[in-house]
Amino acid sequence: MKQVRLTESSFEPREGYERSVLLTSEDFGANTKLQLMRLAPSQSIKPHHHNTRTECFRIVSGSGEIKINDEVVATTDNDIVLCEPGDVHEFINTSVSEPLTFLVIRTNDSGNEDMIWEDA
């Protein structure tokens, strides 16, 4: 058994956002990871895709948009969005004052090798 308190998460800075790895493959017994992400007001995570990784996003707080392929999905607290391998996706925090915080469940996770940034 392992308990994780989101309120006690420590974040590491990334390119345009912060993340906290909550559970890893060692916890799940598979290539799966649970992360807490925090996107500052008016910031975005650049468009990218994964060849093998599936990601499930659960909005914890805040509001924003997820662009997946050619579709824009408006998100708010408690929404869940699934992004499949090959889907080009981008997160945008539409708030000018509040962070956008969300959980990410990553399956078939092979690490940063499967993070393919799209050309600008």
Give the integer mean of the pLDDT values. Answer: 95
User: How many separate domains?
Assistant: 1
Number of strands: 11
Q: Span from first to last CA?
A: 43 Å
Provide the CATH top-level class.
Answer: Mainly Beta
CATH architecture: Sandwich
What is the H/E string?
A: EEHEEEEEEEEE
Reconstruct the topology from this structure.
Layout: E1 12-13, E2 18-23, H1 25-28, E3 32-39, E4 44-49, E5 54-61, E6 64-68, E7 71-75, E8 80-83, E9 89-93, E10 100-107, E11 116-117
Antiparallel strand pairs: 1-2, 2-3, 3-10, 4-9, 4-11, 5-8, 5-10, 6-7, 6-9
What does it look like?
The protein has one helix at 25-28; strands at residues 12-13, 18-23, 32-39, 44-49, 54-61, 64-68, 71-75, 80-83, 89-93, 100-107, 116-117. The relative contact order is 0.27. The protein has one domain: Jelly Rolls, CATH 2.60.120. The strands form two sheets. The chain has a six-stranded antiparallel β-sheet. It has a five-stranded antiparallel β-sheet with strand order 7-6-9-4-11, with no helix packed on it. The protein is 3% helix and 49% strand. The model has no long low-confidence stretch (mean pLDDT 95). With 120 residues, the chain is mainly β.
